[in-house]
Each structure stands twice: as C-alpha cells, then as structure tokens.
Design brief:
Elements (H helix, E strand, L loop, with lengths): L7 E9 L2 E10 L4 E6 L8 H11 L3 E11 L5 E4 L1 H17 L7 H5 L5 E4 L5 H53 L5 H16 L7 H15 L2 H20 L4 H21 L3 H21 L4
Parallel strand pairs: 3-4
Antiparallel strand pairs: 1-2, 2-4, 5-6
Helix pairs in contact: 1-4, 4-7, 4-9, 5-6, 7-8, 8-9
Length: 295
C-alpha cells in the first residue's frame, strides 16, 4: 500500500436522458475526515450515500463535494388549475343570472390568473430512482479519480521524506562518531576543568568536585539519544513501506525526533555536536512539514 496525500481534486461529468450533472471533489489537509456536501434542491436524499462512500474511501482530509445538475428539456406542459377554473365559471354563472352580459369566452377564461399554468414535466419516481443511481455511480468514478490523485501526490511526498529520513540517520551517525562524544574524551575534558579549579587555590572539596564531574559526564553522554534516533529512523522507514493512513504515526515520530535533537543540543559540550543538532532540527522541521500533507 502506498502513501496518500490529503490534497487533490477530481471532476466527473455524467448524463442520463435529459439530465446532465457534474461532480467536483476538492480535498485538503484535515485532522480527521471532514466531508462537506452541496447538492441542488431535490437531491438532498443523496447526501447520506455520498458521505458513506467518502468515509469508505478516505480516512483523513477535509473534502468538499459539489453536485450540479440540469435537466435539458424544452417540453412545457400546460396545466389547468381545476379549482380556480371551477370558481371562475361559478362566478360567471352567478353574475350572468344577475346582469345581462355575454357568456364568457374560452380565451377570456384562460387569461384569468391562475387558471392556466405552464410547468416543466416532472419525472416519475422510476425515472428519479434511475437518475439517482446513475449519479451515485458517477460519484464512485470521481472518488476513484480523487484517490488516484492523492496517491500520486503521496508517492511524491514519500520519495521526499525517504531522503529526509536518510539525512536524519546520517546526521545521527555523524554525532555518534564525533570524538567529543566518546566517554574518554568527556572524562578528560571534565578532569582538566576540575584540575583548573583546584589550581586556583580556592579551598574546594576534591571529592565533591569529582562527584559533580561524574554527574556532568553522565549528563553529557548522548548515547541514549543517538540510539533512540536510530530506532525512530527504523520505525519511520517501516511506516513508509507500510503505506496507507500513517500520517498521524509519522507525525508522532517527528515529535520524538525533535525531542532527541533538542536534548542533544542541550547536552552538547562541543561545537561540532551542537552544529549537528541544529542541522537535525532544520531537517526534522522539513520532515514534519511534509508529513502534515499525508493521510
């Protein structure tokens, strides 16, 4: 399974008989799966099916779905409103009994407001059911296109973060191999500092100084941080190979990378190791920025 980005776009047209429609799907980063659906009046019953299909296909991302539809027909039906017509005829008859007047003509009756209405033909239930099924089927195609685009983008991000993981490992190894991190080097440097303090002539507790030096030596040892960096590198590579919705787990490991690099910088007693720690922080920030786009 490959990595998937959370950003993408898909467009799908469809038609059935006189009905034409278009799907537009836009996806951006999101903490979870947030779907927003916009459909024309009369298509509200599709919303639940739309959200169900999206939740099946995607785990994370803010996805906006828009359906537009138009019925391309010029057929207009003339419909007589029987209630209005009956009322008009009854009034004409009553007035005819009271006054001497010509009987109403058909064109006059049809010109009475509300008697004659012109409507577009309304599709029957069978037609509507078939149209809705076809619309949802084309949505599946749009979802597949969006997933393909997110996957292609995810593969690009995957290649980039692989190189960043390699870079983190290289820097961790560089810090590990720095002469200043060797226990002997740390002990020698602290021993020299203790001797300089003793040579000042100020009365100092020599045993206490050696104890404090031992504590400082333990604090200056970055062996554990280096080991954890190598462990996190291996975990990141395994997640990238696993693919799928691993963005959150990679983000957690990015936080762990950052924690170790901060500790290395704070423990460092050599400019060369501090420089490596700062390089690590820059690379880890870039790594974390990229994985924010992953599902």
């Amino acid at each position: 399974m490959t990595l998937q980005s959370m950003t993408g776009y898909a467009h799908q047209d469809g038609n059935l008989g006189a009905l034409r429609w278009t799907w537009e799907l836009r996806s951006v980063n999101g903490r979870g799966l947030d779907t927003r659906v916009r459909v024309p009046a009369g298509y509200e019953r599709l919303e639940q099916d739309i959200k169900k299909r999206l939740s099946t296909a995607f785990r994370r991302g803010s996805i906006q779905v828009t359906l537009s539809a138009v019925r391309e027909t010029k057929q207009i039906e003339a419909v007589v409103n029987q209630d209005v017509l009956d009322a008009a005829l009854a009034l004409a008859k009553r007035l005819g009994d009271e006054i001497d007047a010509e009987p109403p003509r058909i064109d006059g009756i049809l010109n009475i407001r509300g008697v004659l209405e012109f409507n577009e033909p309304v599709p029957d239930d069978r037609t509507v059911t078939a149209e809705h099924a076809a619309i949802l089927e084309s949505l599946d195609g749009a979802i597949a296109a969006l997933a393909a685009m997110r996957q292609a983008e995810g593969e690009k991000i995957g290649s980039f973060i692989k190189s960043q993981i390699d870079g983190i490992e290289t820097l961790a190894r560089k810090a590990d191999e720095d002469p200043s991190t060797e226990p002997g080097s740390i002990a020698e440097r602290l021993g020299m500092q203790v001797r300089m303090l003793l040579e000042t002539g100020v009365e100092l507790d020599e045993d206490r100084l050696h104890m404090e030096a031992a504590i400082l030596a333990a604090k200056a040892d970055i062996r554990e941080e280096i080991d954890r960096l190598f462990t996190h590198v291996a975990a990141c590579r395994a997640l990238v190979e696993e693919g799928g919705a691993v963005g959150r787990r990679l983000d957690f490991l990015a936080q762990e990378f950052n924690r170790e690099s901060n500790t290395i910088c704070s423990k460092s007693n050599a400019s060369s190791v501090t420089a490596v720690g700062l390089e690590l922080k820059v690379l880890i920030d870039q790594f974390r920025e990229q994985i924010q786009n992953l599902e």
